[in-house]
């Protein structure tokens, strides 16, 4: 792997880790923040929702902004905006100020994540994509696990403000090295001058906003599902209209023609199923530990860290495995292991030895790491340079949605299980066991798409080892 590609991947990986830690660490600090702002914990969650909505709305426009102003400029300014918004969050003295700060932080994050990944993709040779992907995907797996733990640590031993202040030194280092190593050349002068597709932006932005809010409501207790499903229905209509519009304009905000490439389409379809399953874990497993095992938020996060260790330990092996075996073999076999490790969690109960639980979580973390890296590598294997920006925008948008879909799917399966067992909102062990079973069966659906891959698919990113 060339040094330039390595440095860019590491720079972007650090930025991704900062964003992932920030967006997940806040969850454990909500009770304390709510107390400081003199509001309820439920009301305090608007700070999280505001951030997620901004990501959903503004990620689709990131490709146009990068084409217009260059990847280095946009990425560096986005990190700067993220730092300033983080400082504003840390100094917030009331909920309204905090929500506005989170909105600004979400807008910056919506530029930082996809444009950072685009910088890696456009400066990395196809045969080095496996290694580059490994560096930029591990934060997406580590962040949701380490974030709540760090949030609990800061809140318990320092103050919740440090969840945001810690971004300052990390962000400054990222900016310094981004300006040094990331080139700012525009890929296409025609694209850099194209007008913004306002109709497509509004349709997709409002549609994704309604979908995010609808999914957020589904994950909560004692909610009117009519409102949730109405919002989801409206969102699907608007997103459908944005797709229809994209085929009737010269420069759409998101070009869906890239879905004609099989090695991109399958990570979008079957891969989203796998990522939904992956994103159920940070929600449902700590909840099991706290409600059934009686653990504190800090100790449940500490136990769940076994999964993060598995993620990190697996990273060196993902490169070798992807080079050694074709994507059909890797995604099918590992996709089955993902379903299996999810099902094994059915056997968790309070009296089970902690080392057994930690061992299963460790192995599950390894499996999730392998699947995540494999999908993210295959997705861009056969995408030509002129479609890379469009592919990246669409892929990152769905990857972000898979986080909300994962939480909502886990919550819905848990609500259904509690209803079936007549436990109401007082979740019991059998509710979690049924939920893990439902999630593992859902995971098997992803194999349908993976089996359609040929052994030659994605060959270009594996050729160096041959």
Automatic annotation (TrEMBL):
Pfam families reported in the protein's UniProt record: MFS_1
Domain Major facilitator superfamily (MFS) profile span(s) in chain numbering: 8-458
Positions of transmembrane segments: 48-66, 73-97, 103-122, 129-154, 160-179, 199-219, 225-244, 264-285, 291-309, 330-349, 355-380, 401-420, 432-453
GO cellular component: plasma membrane
Cited PROSITE patterns: MFS
Keyword Transmembrane helix (UniProt): yes
Membrane topology: Multi-pass membrane protein
Repeat as UniProt keyword: no
UniProt main location, coarse: membrane
Top-level lineage group: Bacteria
GO molecular function: transmembrane transporter activity
InterPro entries (UniProt xref): EmrB-like, MFS, MFS_dom, MFS_trans_sf
Alphabetized UniProt keyword annotations: Cell membrane, Membrane, Transmembrane, Transmembrane helix, Transport
Compartments, record wording: Cell membrane
The protein's name in its UniProt record: Drug resistance transporter, EmrB/QacA subfamily
Species name: Echinicola vietnamensis (strain DSM 17526 / LMG 23754 / KMM 6221)
């Amino acid at each position: 792997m060339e040094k330039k590609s390595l440095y860019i991947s590491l720079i972007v990986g650090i930025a991704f880790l900062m964003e992932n830690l920030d967006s997940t660490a806040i969850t454990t600090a909500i009770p304390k923040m709510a107390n400081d702002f003199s509001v309820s914990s439920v009301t305090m969650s608007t700070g999280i929702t505001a951030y997620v909505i901004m990501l959903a709305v503004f990620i689709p426009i990131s490709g146009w902004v990068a084409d217009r102003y260059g990847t280095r400029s946009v990425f560096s300014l986005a990190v700067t905006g993220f730092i300033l918004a983080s400082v504003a969050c840390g100094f917030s003295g009331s909920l309204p100020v905090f929500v506005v700060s989170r909105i600004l932080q979400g807008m910056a994050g919506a530029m930082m994540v996809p444009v950072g990944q685009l910088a890696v993709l456009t400066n990395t040779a196809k045969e080095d994509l496996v290694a580059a992907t490994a560096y930029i995907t591990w934060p997406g797996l580590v962040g949701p696990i380490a974030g709540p733990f760090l949030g609990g640590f800061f809140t318990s031993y320092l103050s919740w403000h440090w969840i945001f202040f810690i971004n300052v030194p990390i962000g400054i280092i990222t900016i310094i090295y981004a300006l040094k190593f990331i080139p700012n050349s525009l890929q296409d002068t025609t694209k850099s001058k194209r007008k913004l597709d306002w109709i497509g932006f509004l349709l997709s932005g409002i549609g994704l906003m309604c979908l995010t809010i609808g999914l957020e409501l589904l994950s909560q207790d004692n909610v009117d599902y009519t409102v949730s499903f109405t919002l989801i229905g409206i969102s699907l209509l608007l997103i459908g209209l944005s797709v229809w519009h994209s085929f009737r304009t010269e420069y759409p905000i998101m070009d869906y023609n890239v879905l004609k490439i099989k090695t991109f389409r399958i990570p979008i379809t079957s891969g989203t199923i796998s990522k939904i399953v992956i994103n159920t874990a940070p929600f449902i497993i700590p909840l099991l530990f706290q409600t059934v095992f009686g653990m504190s938020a800090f100790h449940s996060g500490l136990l769940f860290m076994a999964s993060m260790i598995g993620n990190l330990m697996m990273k060196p092996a993902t490169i070798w495995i992807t080079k050694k075996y074709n994507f059909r073999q890797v995604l099918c076999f590992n996709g089955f292991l993902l379903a299996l490790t999810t099902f094994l969690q059915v056997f968790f109960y309070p009296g089970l030895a902690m080392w057994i639980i930690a061992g299963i979580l460790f192995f599950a973390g390894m499996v999730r790491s392998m699947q995540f890296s494999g999908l993210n590598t295959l997705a861009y294997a056969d995408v030509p340079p002129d479609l890379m920006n469009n592919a990246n925008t669409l892929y990152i948008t769905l990857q972000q949605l898979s986080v909300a879909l994962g939480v909502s799917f886990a919550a819905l399966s848990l609500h259904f299980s509690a209803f079936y067992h007549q436990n109401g909102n007082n979740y019991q062990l059998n509710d979690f066991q049924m939920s893990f079973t439902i999630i593992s069966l859902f995971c098997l659906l992803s194999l349908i798409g993976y089996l359609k891959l040929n052994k030659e698919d994605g060959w270009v990113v594996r050729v160096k080892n041959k």
